[in-house]
Amino acid sequence: MFSSLLIANRGEIACRIIRTARRLGVRTIAVYSDADRGAMHVADADEAHALGPPEARLSYLNGARILEIARAAGAEAIHPGYGFLSENAEFAEACAKHAIVFVGPTPRAIRRMGLKDEAKAVARTAGVPVVPGYQGGEQSLERLMKESAAVGFPVIIKAVAGGGGRGMRAVGRPEDFASALEACRREARAAFGDDRVLLEKYFAVARHVEVQVMADAHGNVIHLFERDCSIQRRHQKIIEEAPAPDIPAAVRAKMLEAAVAIARAVDYRNAGTVEFLYEPQHGRFFFMEMNTRLQVEHPVTEMITGLDLVELQLLVANGEKLPVSQPQVEANGHAVEARLYAEDPAQGFLPQTGRVHEVVWPTDIANCRIDTGIEKGSEIGSYYDSMIAKIITWGPGRNDAIEKLRVALDRTLLFGLKTNKAFLLSVARDSHFRREAPTTQFLEHFGDEASRPLQSLVAMGCAAWLFISNGNGGGPWSDMAGWTLSGAPRLARCKLSVQGRMLDLLVRFDGRLLLLSFGKERHTAESLSIERNSLKLLIDGVPAALSFHRWGPQLFIDVSGNHLTISEPEFSSGASAGPAEGSVRAPMPGRVLRLEIAQGTPVRSGDRLLLLEAMKMEHVLRAPVAGTLSDLLVAEGDQVREGDVLCVIVPEHE
Ligand code: ADP
Which end of the chain has a smaller Cβ tally under 10 Å, C or N? Predict the structure, then answer.
């Protein structure tokens, strides 16, 4: 085995590769961009070297710089992980030129399998059925239209150089073809610098089943069984499992054989994945493409085979023989993986950026593995993929594995950023998913459900805020004018910023129940128990549980993966809730983003006054009373401290 390895990647995959290398006694060399100086992979490695600016082009994609570091640090090998330079044949060649081992296939195999059309030709020569379509060089609209008609609609247009679900459009009708082609070409040009496309028959009822292969330089090629990655959004995998459920044994055997045949046909080395579309109604499969690298979802294969794929990669890259032969590879039980992303399902899965204030992984669950590069205090920026972690569980049967995934997701807590946890949980709970093998259309009916915010979520958050601030004592939260939850019925009013939206909350407490009203909503809440960072309560008589994390004037709440951020309220007890003071203060430190009203203007109570940006969120500040804006004390762009008076309204009845 070589003695030193440079990991040309970041995040969870860099950490995962470092783990195996360290176990094998290999010195690990990390590289990092300016944005990743404090990242986990930097701390995990034996040594780390700066690459340059955050942009991938200038850092993790900068092959020349990475090679320079590798040589200076004495790295004998480079593991590219996935993404970035992992399927870059020129980089693999450059490594060889500098006598550094590239942990991956030969440049020739990367080149041949990297282009979807070339890969199909290889599959055909190996006698494997490919998805029917057109892969010709003639790219005129007329020709492509004609070929589509020959293939038969619906068709899918794919960028020849595509990957990661980009540069791909399904087209149902001939009249939509021209515009879809244009969009696809535009995307392909921007993402891959190559706008050539191919056409395929589009299979509406299909599953994505892929086979893991592994090959050494001594002519040994084996498969490590298959994975099912049908649960996709916008052609990107979200949940993966191994083995693929419900495939007839004879079909599975043929598919595994086909994958090995394709690998042999390109004289493949190292880890690779052969992807197929499987048509469950007809029990047929078609070759789609080959990925010449380690896949994101490789842990499910590791869970069922007990093999460490990175270890195998390092061994064969070092010229050794595969330590296992095909009959020695066994598949046991079932494994599922869910990808946790920093994104907001309610906003079309928009990636989220910000700081991870607190994170809790379910590390105490047996047969549950967490692959992550994120920890408390990590910043999630906009430069790279927004995946936070992969949560992988194993069980003797498929249902055991899925149930364990549900529990593991439930116990995963991340505060400070919105994630797709609630969305993943809804899939893990879904009876349809548990009952039968999903097709690639599975998530179509999930979109709406996950983006619908829980009706009572805001009420839950408000109640939580009140219970927590009074139950825990001390800190800024209990320091509220005259408000306690004990004693006689009390009435109070407060303004609460929930997800950056100011809420006028009226609270009545009758000794046991909290009555909350805001807008048209009315809810009752009763606290059952508060423990460390979790609260059990009854909302409208229905039991609910939530977890929370307090950070300065903010309270982060997780209700089954639905995230809520509440910031410190302006509080007034019922008795003194009369005419509110006309001064508008900054509820937290921040920056004035926009003034929405000019000095001297009349305002009604609740009118928008200005927009404050604080903790990466926007907060609308509204007029507390009707009157005239007499003093505007800040300008756009001003930094303000908490409690600063921003403007003053002279109430109209004075
Ligand atoms: P990428 O290389 O961008 O990942 P793939 O060619 O692997 O793209 O396709 C990604 C996903 O798109 C597949 O897993 C599948 O769900 C869907 N897909 C691709 N081709 C077809 C097709 N011909 N019919 C139906 N679905 C398809």
Answer: C
